[in-house]
Design a protein that fits this description.
Jelly Rolls; 17 strands; mainly beta; 2 domains; 6-stranded antiparallel sheet; single chain
Amino acid sequence: MGFEIRRADARYRTDRDGITTFHSFSYGVHYDPDNIGFGPILALNDERIPPGGGYDAHQHSDVTIYTLVLDGALAHEDSAGRRYVLTAGKLESVSAGAGIEHSERNASDTEPLRFLQLMTREVPVDVGVSIHGVEGGRLRVQAPALVHVTHGEFVLDGISLGAGDEARLRGGDAYDLNAPGPADALIVQVG
């Protein structure tokens, strides 16, 4: 089989300061030598931030950071002078270069925030990150790619993928993901 399925409930989980994070790959205290990345992807974290909560300023380097808000609104501020609020359905990327400091906080004091954060190596590689939605029908994805279902259901080779499930597509084949109804996925082309 040219793909691997990773289920949402099999992710590593970190709880701290009211924040819950589900990790797709080895991250922080969670180390699995067989799951340290996929191509140039180093991390894909599903973050759940309570009202008024978030991450204070912290540093990253040598990565590109992609953020996709699933629910709520995220307030971003960084040492390069960027300040914005990212709302549900919006995808933003930041190049950390030799080093950047940023904070990410829930922009609301009353509503929870949920977002995906993807980190890739910052080297000259071909990485395409996009959001795809269908109202039922077929989504064709060229491998190698990582497919993270954000809403709804897709079926890959007879296997149902629900929200939070991932398919890591290997090789150079194209794969059909069929959606019986409305569904969305974050797709990361890694080749």
